[in-house]
Amino acid sequence: MYRRYCNDCFPPFYLPNRQTPNTNMQNATPTTQGGSTAQNQIPAPMPMSPSDFEQAPGSPTNLDIQYTQGYLKTQIGKRVRISFLLGTNTFQDRTGTLLEVGISYVIIQDIDSNTRTLCDIYSIKFVTFYS
Predict the structure, then answer these.
(1) Distance between CA 104 and CA 98 in Å, rounded?
(2) C-alpha distances in angstroms, 96 versus 9, 54, 116?
(3) Where are the alpha helices (H) located in the chain, listed in sequence order?
(4) Are residues 81 and 52 both part of a single domain?
(5) DSSP letter string over 51-66?
(6) Is 77 found in the same domain as 36?
(7) What is this structure's pTM?
(8) What are the boundaries of the region Disordered (predicted)?
């Protein structure tokens, strides 16, 4: 079975079956009689959707509840208070309903103003969940 990995996430030596362009001109095919050169050509990559990718061995996944994103996804729809550390000693809180969780962000909706705020997940220090 052929496994497909995201080519942007891993260096070429880590990926199995990855073809890389041939930049060594010694391996190029000699000139034909018509005067044009034929080189090794790599077929264009097939368009892929995110569901086509398999996780590479040892890669963390954001769906596992032992990771912040995975656990927060189980709490979508709940009222939360999130404390962020800004700089070295400034804390700021945001309160609202947890709407979405991405790899590097969360979106909360303010209950009073009905506005949505996108928040950096790496600045989060504390999350309080309300029943």
Answers:
(1) 14
(2) 33, 34, 9
(3) 68-73
(4) no
(5) GGPPPPTT---TTSTT
(6) no
(7) 0.54
(8) 17-43
Q: For the chain, what is the domain count?
A: 2
Q: 33-64 burial by CB neighbour count: b if 16+ within 10 A, else e?
A: eeeeeeeeeeeeeeeeeeeeeeeeeeeeeeee
Residue range(s) defining the domain that contains residue 78: 68-130
The domain boundary, picked from 59, 77, 103, lies at 59
Lookup: tokens for 111 = 């209950």
Residue 60, pLDDT score = 59
* Nearest by Cα to 59 from 18, 104, 105, 10: 10
Q: Give the residue from 14, 32, 59 where a domain finishes.
A: 59
